[in-house]
Design brief:
elongated; nine-stranded mixed β-sheet; 16% strand; binds 1,3-dihydroxyacetonephosphate; 9 strands; L-fuculose-1-phosphate Aldolase; 2 domains; alpha+beta; 273 residues; binds zinc ion
Length: 273
């Protein structure tokens, strides 16, 4: 039997958190990631079958009772996750009542899951209803996307269309568009509820002036989603730096050609003026 620290799950979390840090989207303790593991995946290890500590949570997560999540710790720096995974992340199991979690690995200096755990777990609940393969919720602070929430209207349609128009890849990667919620205080159950409600229609929810929440089936896929959005946001920023006047753009016909070629289900409402 092997130890959990040597698992591919910890390895992938270390790679992803370092990638997020190196892209500049997770300064200081900014950002958090949770990855769902199945009971079978967890039980393969010699050091994941004992409860080390129990931590209370302030909202009802009973829909996820018995599920396991590898999650980053509150206040921890992504730049340090690679060197101190057992300190800066933890594997938790949601208790039957849904009001506490058992830590079964990690957080070995007394740490606890991210302060955005309400938004993570509530979003997991909503995305799992749409997709049984749902595994990852990722929160980070991509610079150009955050900047766009100061200069563009806070409308899901406007932001989605603007990002689609910055690169043909965008509509292929997020054909449903992205959701935008109003500015709210981070780390609260209220922002968790609003994020999860918006996740019913989108894999991505933008938190104005703060960052993004993204959902997906794997760490790579979810990272790729954020990467694609931020690439489009960077093209937008660069256009503004070049004077902001666009002489030509990707047209509705071009989007329809992409939809035909890649078999996309487009958000028709966002396609029309
Ligand atoms: P945590 O350190 O609690 O994960 O919070 C970071 C963050 O980005 C809050 O929105
Ligand atoms: Zn944040």
């Amino acid at each position: 039997m092997t130890k959990f620290i040597d698992s591919k799950y910890v390895k992938e979390m270390k790679q992803t958190t370092m990638n997020l840090y190196e892209h500049g989207w997770d300064e200081r303790n900014g950002g958090n990631v949770s990855l769902r593991l199945t009971k079978d995946e967890v039980e393969k290890f010699e050091d994941t079958n004992k409860t080390l500590r129990t931590v209370q949570i302030k909202f009802n997560a009973s829909e996820l009772a018995g599920k396991y999540y590898l999650v980053t710790g509150t206040g921890r720096y992504f730049k340090n996750m690679t060197e101190y995974p057992e300190r800066d992340m933890g594997l938790i199991k949601i208790n039957a009542e849904g009001n506490s979690v058992d830590i079964v690995w990690g957080f070995d200096d007394g740490g606890e899951p991210t302060s955005e755990f309400p938004a993570h777990l509530m979003s997991h609940i909503e995305r799992l209803k749409k997709d049984p393969e749902q595994r990852v919720i990722m929160h980070c602070h991509p610079t150009n996307l955050v900047a766009m929430t100061f200069t563009l209207p806070l409308s899901s349609k406007v932001l989605s269309r603007t990002l689609w128009q910055m690169h043909p890849e965008s509509i292929v990667v997020f054909p449903e568009g992205i959701g935008v919620i109003p500015y709210m205080c981070p780390g609260t159950t209220a922002i968790g509820e609003k994020t999860a409600e918006t996740m019913k229609d989108y894999h991505v929810v933008v938190w104005p002036h703060h960052g993004v929440f993204a959902a997906g089936d794997s760490l790579d896929e979810t990272f790729g989603l954020v990467e694609t959005i931020e690439k489009s946001a960077l093209v937008y920023t660069t256009i503004q730096a070049q004077g902001g006047k666009m002489l030509q753009t990707i047209t509705e016909k071009d989007f329809r050609d992409l939809a035909d070629r890649f078999g996309l289900e487009l958000n028709e409402e966002y396609l029309k003026d």
